[in-house]
Design brief:
mainly beta, Immunoglobulin-like, seven-stranded antiparallel sheet, 32 strands, disordered N terminus
Length: 574
Amino acid sequence: MKRFSLAVLLLVSMLTVKAEFTGLTYEVVATTSVGTTYRVYANFDDATDLAQALYAESPFALSITSSAGFYQDALGNYTPEAINPLLYSSFQNLIYDSWITLGQDDSNFPSPIGSVGGAGWSSGSLSFEAGGDFEVNDGVGGSVFATPDQIQAQPDGNGRVLLAQLTTTGTWNMTCNIQWRDASLEVFQETGLSIGFEVTEYQGLSYELEAENTSAPGFDTYRVYANFDDPGAQVVAVYGLQDTALTISTTGTFYQDQLGGPLSTTINPILYTSFPNLPYDSWVTIGTEDNTGSVDFIGVDFIPFEAGGNLVVDDAVGGTWYILPNLEPAAFPDADGKVLLGQFTTDGVVDLTFNIQYRSSDGSNIQVPGQSLTFPVVTLGCTNAGACNYNPLADFDDGSCEFLSCAGCDDVNACNYNGQAVIVDNSLCTYPVGYPNNTVDCDGNCLNDADNDQVCDEDEVPGCTSSDADNYNPLATDDDGTCIISGCTDPEAQNYNANATSDNGGCEFLIVGTQGCTYGDATNYDAAANLDDGSCEFDCSGGGGCAYDTDDNGLIGSADLLVFLSLYGQPCGD
């Protein structure tokens, strides 16, 4: 016998994604005693598209699961072609049967949808019809399919093709794959599509300020609530045990009216006019706020609480206040999703821990232990006005007061003078350098500085400050005009020093003109010379000797002059 895979059966010609498919959606169509009924749709934005199959083929699973199982009517099937609408009046729950489909929701179609699949498909459909999950993910797979002439597989006026109806009291999820074709007969598919309904239900505790200064000045009244996002949930008990203690404590006291009691069911509203403080009695409850409700308790010692003290349930036996399921309407969330658990009038801060049991809308009992709440919201801090960190906004002292950081110096001459010091401690005072004979202020700036040279007048050292001077004083800070600088002071000299204050006789002059012998009788007379350079020579060889030729070399030269100069001023001998 030949086996055909789902891929062959579906005649898949292309595996691309087409833009006309816009996703999955669901809507709630009914809420009844058998659960909430949802319908799941594939959505298209092209009315000419035609859905061909809702299928499973590994690795693309068809999975429909619920936390509480699905309602399956005895007259229904896992697809709707067996459902006869004429039976609805006699079998009213048949209309809420759970099934998968491709556009069809009952047997009123001339050509019903078909289904095909292997062993995995058969097993999944049997589980689904028994109220369990529908899960198929094998190589053969399976499908709910329609032929091209079936109008139920075309998008309705809202662009939708029905894929499933699911009735459950719990959460659910559907993962699926669809195939469709467009007007040009091109085939497309979408895999791994997922949609579902999840209920997060319990959302924690909250409190509200009911009224201020109620039973007495400083006493405010608060109410505590459990919060839900499932209107079908109901609180059935608030309890305490040895390992999960229930506590209600206050830093002050709880107001307990003499006509009140530990539960709200002891409060008679008729007495409010005659006893104006009765509405502010402290009590616990589940939903109801007076004797119109039906809350009871067991194992809870309310005596300390009724005396204005704390309520604690932490022994091995435990204790609880409770309601009987479905018999207390106020145990269901109100329009804001709240269930009242207690009223507390106190002049302090309340710190409580509740353990809550509630019944979910799917019928399961859920416990949420250790739910803590502190109110009102307070500011902790130092409340001692004499402390350095005093906080005038603090409601309660947290033991953080300290008295050192704000201690200060009250000496007005000190650099750290603090006229606002809460604690005077002049050992902390700091002063300018050299105080009390200081020449600078607390920032190191001179008190006196006539020449603005950043050297205080008291610290000035007079002297010569020029490093070129003969008498330069490197320690001098204030030049006193006494600098002595040796050098040539003749402006005509080649080495004239404008800064020189004392002439050192070393002036040098630049000679201008032609040098040579300018004496006409000299043998080397130079007519062009205009500056005599002392080189003149004379010829004494004409006889009779030369009176000035002291070295008898026949010439009167510079050597003869030097001899003359050495003898100048001496008396002549014989």
